[in-house]
Specification:
Blueprint: H1 22-31, H2 37-57, E1 63-65, H3 73-80, H4 94-100, E2 110-112, E3 119-121, E4 124-125, H5 136-147, E5 152-157, H6 159-165, E6 167-168, H7 182-198, E7 203-207, H8 217-231, E8 238-242, H9 251-256, E9 262-266, E10 282-288, H10 298-309, E11 314-319, H11 338-341, H12 347-363, H13 392-403, H14 420-431, H15 436-457, H16 474-479, E12 481-484, E13 491-494, E14 497-499, E15 503-509, H17 516-524, E16 531-535, H18 537-542, E17 545-546, H19 552-572, E18 577-581, H20 593-611, E19 619-624, H21 633-639, E20 643-646, H22 659-662, E21 667-670, H23 683-696, H24 715-733
Parallel strand pairs: 1-5, 4-6, 5-7, 7-8, 8-9, 9-10, 10-11, 15-17, 16-18, 18-19, 19-20, 20-21
Antiparallel strand pairs: 2-3, 12-15, 13-14
Bound molecules: glutamine and zinc ion (ZN).
Binding site for Zn(2+) 1: 623, 625, 647, 708
Protein name: 5-methyltetrahydropteroyltriglutamate--homocysteine methyltransferase
Enzyme class: transferase
């Protein structure tokens, strides 16, 4: 078929939570039974209309539709294909039951969307899954936009990525993989394309981000089979296959060899390809980053666009990925330092950049020099030599001497329940309705309560409870130079959950001690050791928007140096135990294998830089959230913390079954209390978990703790659960 022309500019997707988080509020109100599904749909419809009108007003050429979602686009795709597992069919609202569970029905799993902080719902596909088209959502969005006088391009997850992101349904035979069902899924995509063609849709976008990861020959064959087949359909919209989050590598020639009319490339992370097969394709060139908050270097972008233009039938200016991962609008940030603000572009500004670049490209001569200089990222500094602490055995002896802990010491991960009173006080402090001294008094009272509770329950290493922290990253960002925090810079993490990442825009320095006074106060209330509690450099960087004029590694090292100063001051204030959390250690992991090893090396070096100044007699703890740590066990080992606490309650302490754990030489605290659930674990069940730990590790190395921080639980739950945790530990210590 001859492709209809593609307008000169587009974006791959747009935020949907609402500039004021309207969708979040509407969802939570519906879930709580305070409003109806119709009310929710009304809010959703308004948000979609506002987005389309706004994109149109900004002058964007091609508008996407079906990028809105009530929860998640992968879940939407499962529904579109009819892949709803039977257990959800009886739920009052199967869609949200899949996402969140419903009385007694376990939800689908949720996991990270590539290397972003967005999380998607993992579809379950088995050999018997029945696929049946339910095209209501994409069709109704096309119609809704038309009512506003706007034509749109429906955005769908492509069949290969959909299946690669799915997991085998429970009970699938060994060796089954969801991709085995490709041809059945393609039947449904064919019907869908026919339905969209019938609706008069000119272009459809099929997202295949899984193709920027390492793929096997068989998977590339699946790509070819899929797009040869969809391309061969007689009545269909033109096909635009979008890739993002990296370079297509070997998948590009495969895709370019199929009849698809347009291919989307992430030119922020990937290079301009040289490929003869692109000569008859439209290339949507993603030159405006959807992954950061910085203004685009227009000259550099233009150079890339012109280089693509020389090879392709047409070049369209686009974003590197959906703008889902950036906040809405810099204009909503009146308090930002103007010097920082000038450098920023959120979704709205990025759309304007795309439009402007399309104008500049059209006005620029057809044959460019092609070799405009691209500004180089500042030179990488050498890996610092990490000062080494003494070997673990030496440290362990010094710490045992100083701390005199019982075997199976009981501790927690750091936070205690955040009361509504404290949250309100913090809001009042920000609003200027409460003075600093009164706020500090409240925080101190909360610390005193948390310390008293832990003493009463009989914990061995106490925490102060983190009442002064809104968030484990934002709190440090607010106290370090080089960071800005936003008022409305929310980004969807999953469902109704949003985060407001700080913006790391300059050199990071610690103007003064951050946590020392709180820890010192807590320690003054008890003879038991109180843990200093810090967030690690990789996690601070992973959960922020980070400057792009320095290699990420160097940024992590700067943050590490600031944390090292805090470690030093905590030690000087008498802290005998200091925990440096790295729950996000795995989050910056590059998507392709060759880069992963280098990443883990410098990430570990960053952590060591933050902690290796500690004296042998200071016990360094770290905390990581996930239980499937196998992939990074060697990295965890490399952190060289004296004690590592880890999530494992949900997997029945599965990690302890890993042979690699046997070789883990230092203290380990596998979580025995699943803090994600309101359920209070019984003594026997905790004891079972600990026995499993004792089978894998010598008693002297096992710690007893919950899976993660207690922030989201209530005091009643925490008190009951920790009582049982202490009882179980005591029974095992003294089996008399
Ligand atoms: N110390 C933090 C807390 O307890 C750790 C949180 C985390 O692992 N995400 O809340
Ligand atoms: Zn955790």
């Amino acid at each position: 078929m001859t492709a209809p022309t593609f307008p000169a500019s587009t974006v791959l997707g747009y935020p949907r939570i609402g500039p004021r988080r309207e969708l979040k509020r509407a969802l939570e109100s519906y879930w709580d039974g305070r409003s109806t599904r119709d009310d929710l749909e009304g809010v959703a419809r308004r948000l979609r209309a506002e987005t389309w009108r706004r994109l149109d007003k900004l002058g964007l050429g091609a508008l996407p539709s079906n990028t809105f979602s009530l929860y998640d686009q992968v879940l939407d795709t499962a529904v579109l294909l009819g892949a709803v597992p039977d257990r959800f069919l009886t739920a009052a609202d199967p869609y949200f039951a899949m996402a969140r569970g419903a009385d007694g029905i376990a939800p689908l799993r949720m996991t990270k969307w590539f290397d972003t902080n967005y999380h998607y719902i993992v579809p379950e596909i088995g050999p018997d899954t029945v696929f049946r088209l339910d095209a209501r959502k994409p069709l109704s969005e096309v119609r809704e936009a038309r009512e506003l006088g706007l034509e749109t391009r429906p955005v769908l997850l492509g069949p290969v990525t959909f299946l690669l992101l799915s997991q085998g349904a429970p009970g699938s035979p060994a060796g089954f993989s969801p991709l085995d069902r490709l041809h059945d899924v393609l039947d449904v995509y064919e019907q869908l394309l026919a339905a969209l063609a019938g609706e008069g849709v000119a272009w459809v976008q099929l997202d295949e981000p899984a193709l920027v990861m390492d793929r096997t020959e068989a998977e590339l064959d699946a790509v070819k089979a899929a797009y040869d087949r969809l391309g061969a359909l007689s009545a269909r919209p033109a096909l635009f296959v979008a890739s993002y989050f990296g370079d297509l590598g070997g998948a590009l020639p495969v895709l370019a060899g199929t009849p698809v009319e347009a291919i989307g490339l992430d030119l922020v992370r990937g290079g301009v390809p040289r490929l003869a097969e692109l000569a008859d394709k439209v290339v949507v060139a993603g030159v405006v980053s959807g992954r950061d908050v910085w203004r685009t270097d227009q000259d550099r972008a233009l150079a890339g666009l012109r280089a693509v233009r020389e090879q392709a039938a047409q070049v369209v200016v686009g974003t590197s990925c959906s703008l889902l991962h950036v906040p809405y609008d810099v204009e909503l940030e009146p308090d930002l330092d103007p010097a920082v603000r000038r450098r920023l572009a959120f979704a709205e500004q990025k759309v304007a950049e795309v439009v402007e670049l399309a104008g500049r490209l059209a006005a620029s001569p057809a044959v460019g020099s092609g070799d405009e200089a691209t500004p180089a990222v500042a030179a990488v500094t050498d890996t610092p030599s990490v000062k080494s602490r003494s070997p673990y055995v030496v440290r362990a002896a010094a710490q045992a001497e100083r701390l005199r802990l019982p075997v199976l010491p009981v501790t927690t991960i750091g936070s205690f329940p955040q009361t509504g009173e404290l949250r309100e006080a913090r809001a009042a402090l920000t609003a200027g309705d409460l003075d600093e001294a009164a706020y500090d008094e409240l925080v101190r009272a909360e610390i005193a309560r948390v310390v008293a509770l832990q003493e009463r329950l009989g914990l061995d290493v106490l925490v102060h409870g983190e009442p002064e922290r809104n968030d484990m990253v934002q709190y440090f960002a607010e106290h370090l130079d080089g960071f800005a925090v936003t008022r409305n810079g929310w980004v969807q993490s999953y469902g109704s959950r949003c985060t407001r990442p700080p913006i790391l825009h300059g050199d990071v320095r610690r103007p003064g001690p951050i946590t020392v006074r709180w820890i010192r106060y807590a320690q003054s209330l008890t003879d038991k050791p109180v843990k200093g509690m810090l967030t690690g450099p990789v996690t601070i960087v992973a959960w922020s928007f980070v400057r792009d004029d320095l290699p990420l590694r160097d940024v992590v090292f700067q943050v590490a140096d600031a944390i090292a100063e805090e470690v030093h001051d905590l030690e000087a204030a008498g802290a005998a135990v200091i925990q440096v959390d790295e729950p996000a250690l795995r989050e910056l992991m590059p998507l392709r294998a060759p880069e992963q090893k280098a990443y883990l090396e410098w990430a570990v070096a960053g952590y060591r830089r933050a902690t290796s100044g500690a004296a042998d007699r200071t016990q360094i703890h770290t905390h990581l959230c996930y239980s499937d740590a196998d992939q990074i066990l060697t990295a965890i080992d490399g952190l060289d913390a004296d004690v590592t606490t880890i999530e494992s309650a949900r997997s029945g302490a599965r990690i302890l079954g890993e042979p690699a754990i046997g070789g883990f030489e230092r203290g380990l605290g596998p979580g025995v209390y699943d803090i994600h659930s309101p359920r209070v674990p019984g003594v026997d069940e905790i004891e079972d978990g600990l026995r499993a730990a004792l089978r894998a590790l010598p008693a002297g190395r096992v710690w007893v703790n919950p899976d993660c921080g207690l922030k989201t639980r209530t005091y009643a739950q925490v008190e009951a659960a920790l009582t049982n945790v202490v009882t179980a530990a005591r029974r095992l210590r003294d089996p008399g």
